[in-house]
């Protein structure tokens, strides 16, 4: 992807030529350098080829889209990274090349580069992956340069090569067309001279190396210069317990020259750094590669400047990318090294700083107290002096401020207590409408989260149908700075919405500017429900009154009046018969029977409107009369049970129980489809219990209650008027049970005075 300055970078793991993160660089001095032999050592060829195929990805899309972009492939034969040096090389190229530059970085397995099959497979993969899309190849290490030169014509023909971190001795007698770069010094001689300078009593130098390789021979040649002073002890071979035992057997006054390659891919039980730790534990240890010495127990050595190397390599690469031919760019030779030592190891081996060569750099040195805190001490002194002139004024100002803060805290405390004890939900917002304060009642109303409702989160608790209207009113008030009130629904913690009446007034700063609003909201849900229920019940009562009047009028007109008219006609006929003298034809018994029936029906109608027996004989007698009348008229079987009912009940209680029983029986007659009902009335401690039951059709209780039938409402309201409880138990096909319980505190005395136990079936 594009990065700063048009640089693109991509990544590939060791051995796979796919793009790599540019910062994952390598520091290679161009040979079997121990600091660069960190690749996977014993990865099989077939497994490596599989990784190459799986991990191969085509070049970044940006390469194809920008034809003027410069594409660079960076090849390493090791895994030691110097991020700062690589960043410097990148920035150097960016400073000299104005086109977009795309970096692709690949790490080659150093241990596999001797395998011809691996090299050929790697070359083919690079050819397929990059082909003619590259403008430059940058190699780091001698092995990477050798591989690239050997297979360039096969995989990337004609692409120029710039190398870096290659020792000058490696290029003696070798020149390639289209190749230029920078040689890097390896301070083998300087490191050996430093070790013998700092340890003048040294009698031997132990060279630890994996094999008698190129760099072992270089070290051997340098030690020959000091053969009259020290003898050479060679510890050759891979890291092992035997090598550590050999270290412990070294004679006193021995200096260790460490150049054992670190093992990475093989993961041995004992690695190079284990051997290094053992060597540094018993002997002063030096290495011409700082990665194998510094901060790992070694004293130090002579090393090239990595930043200078990176900058020079970047300049050479920029010249090639700018169109300059490699034949016209001579190979740059850098022979400068600098001594770097670990201060902690100087202390351990009692090496005086004065013994170091001039220009040496001491790393990891702990600064003195003054060096460590110099800036802080100077700054603190200046601050103390400045504060000395302000202390008197600050103390006086602080006293005034403390007094004002005490008054303010007291005021805020009073406001807090008042707001938290109010039954209303108190809130406060700033001039942008963000909620900055909520009282405890408001927080408890919407949830236990202490952050609930602050900022703009209160919007989530407002009913969606009210949100637009509420926010519009709020925005208009913030613009006009005027008080406002509105109604909206607010969600409780259980998800139920409640109606709130919200009233707010502006808060004004001392300079007259708007500070925000403060308001309170009260729950008006119960009032709204009561008002709606009252309006609904009032309308239903009017409808019921008109319906009852219509029923009475219909009964009088269709039944009583018709039968009276028929009786009048029969009386006219009887009168005519008396005049004619045919008395025998009169049916006076039938006329008398119809008169009795009309009288009974009129009496029943009267009882439905008002039961005089209830006032005279009490609730039990009135219920018996009602049950007897319904049983005879509708040919039903009604079981009546009463127990412990006092002789006297308050009129409102008796009327309530009578009307509930009357309405429940009428509903059972209409809807249950049963012909057997049960009515029970019992006296219990401090209450009267009434139940009307049937085993008929039943109904869905929730649906019926939502329908709000007037009969159910009238029964419920009657029971509530006398402070009782009302309930209905029903389900389809399971019958219905209507229960009313009315309080009666003096029931126990009444029951003991006149209790009766009767059970009658009508």
Task: Give a written overview of the molecule.
By secondary structure, this protein is of the alpha/beta class. 45% of the residues lie in helices and 20% in strands. It has six domains: 4-183, Rossmann fold; 188-300 and 339-363, Response regulator (Rossmann fold, 3-Layer(aba) Sandwich), CATH 3.40.50.2300; 368-414; 422-523, Beta-Lactamase (2-Layer Sandwich), CATH 3.30.450; 525-609; 611-761, Histidine kinase-like ATPase, C-terminal domain (Heat Shock Protein 90, 2-Layer Sandwich). Helix 8 packs parallel to helix 9 and helix 16 (525-580) packs antiparallel against helix 17. Residues 1-65 and 747-762 have low confidence and may be disordered.
Short structural summary:
The chain is α/β, with parallel strands linked by helices and 762 residues long. It has six domains: 4-183, Rossmann fold (3-Layer(aba) Sandwich); 188-300 and 339-363, Response regulator (Rossmann fold); 368-414; 422-523, Beta-Lactamase (2-Layer Sandwich); 525-609; 611-761, Histidine kinase-like ATPase, C-terminal domain (Heat Shock Protein 90), CATH 3.30.565. The protein is built from 23 helices and 25 strands.
